[in-house]
TrEMBL record:
InterPro entries listed in its UniProt record: ThiF/MoeB/HesA, ThiF_NAD_FAD-bd, Ubiquitin-activating_enz
SUPFAM superfamilies: Activating enzymes of the ubiquitin-like proteins (SSF69572)
Stated name of the protein: Protein hesA
Domain THIF-type NAD/FAD binding fold residues, every copy: 13-242
Domain of life: Bacteria
Length: 250
């Protein structure tokens, strides 16, 4: 705890030290988490990871703040409508916790550009909304052997699993084809639902980094925020998966 001791930085974590221990807090401080997408889901995850004291965050999200973002994208605000999402989010996170090193890229997830970000991360949170980017991120995590929290929501429904390359199913094991009916723009979302999904994703990352508790590795968790029904099922790899299986591309 050397680098945390002797100041306000350690004091701010006083209420969670009893849960994570000093070793857990130190592990968070030394960790790098990439959050791909800082909208309703990823922005919530980034907020709680910064609050928890993750040492370095790498963020990626393109574009400017639009009015329809504001029902869920809690890192954004009305004063910055029309301005870049990423710079607004970084400023918000740094106000929350100035001890976190934050890198942000005003960018979608593209394999070559995102490779160094994924390679540097101890764990990645996939909070993108469209499947091409999700597949690119999944491929990157498999290629770099980086764990990935696969979190998604649609309407009132949430699904979450944690991918450990080589051990658990990857995204392409679960969804081998891009779903043609997928409509990424204008999908229905209530902020509280995407916030729950973001909190679950942040918790997965904290558990993975600190070793406290059990992650959803190899387990698909589904939750309905409408009636609070939930269930978990064990999931298995597809040996012929085009990404992580024997049929995988070189
Ligand atoms: Zn796979």
């Amino acid at each position: 705890m050397e680098q945390l001791a002797g100041g306000l930085e350690l004091e701010r974590y006083a209420r969670q030290l009893k849960l994570l221990g000093e070793d857990g807090q130190k592990a968070l401080k030394e960790a790098t988490v990439m959050v791909a997408g800082i909208g309703g889901l990823g922005g919530t995850a980034a907020l709680y990871l910064a609050a928890a004291g993750v040492g370095r965050l790498i963020l990626a999200h393109e574009g400017n703040i639009l009015a329809p973002d504001l029902n869920r994208q809690i890192l954004m605000d009305s004063d910055h409508l029309g301005q870049e999402r990423m710079s607004t989010a970084i400023a918000r996170l740094q106000r929350l916790n100035p001890h976190v090193a934050i890198e942000g890229y005003n960018s979608k997830i593209e394999y070559n550009a995102a490779r160094p970000w994924v390679r540097d991360a101890d764990i990645v949170i996939d909070a993108r909304y469209d499947f091409p980017e999700r597949y690119a991120l999944n491929r990157l995590c498999v290629d770099t052997n980086t764990p990935m929290v696969e979190a998604a929501m649609y309407g009132f429904e949430i699904s979450l699993t944690t991918v450990i390359p080589g051990l658990t199913p990857c995204l392409e094991c679960l969804y081998p084809d891009v779903q043609p009916q997928w409509e990424p723009f204008g999908f229905p979302v209530l902020g509280a639902t995407s916030g729950i999904a973001g909190c679950l994703a942040a918790l997965e990352a904290v558990k993975w980094i600190t070793g406290v508790g059990t992650t959803y590795a190899g387990v698909m968790h589904r939750f309905s925020s409408l009636d609070f029904a939930c269930y978990s099922v064990h999931i298995t790899r597809n040996p012929n998966c085009a990404c992580c299986g024997e049929g995988g591309k070189p």
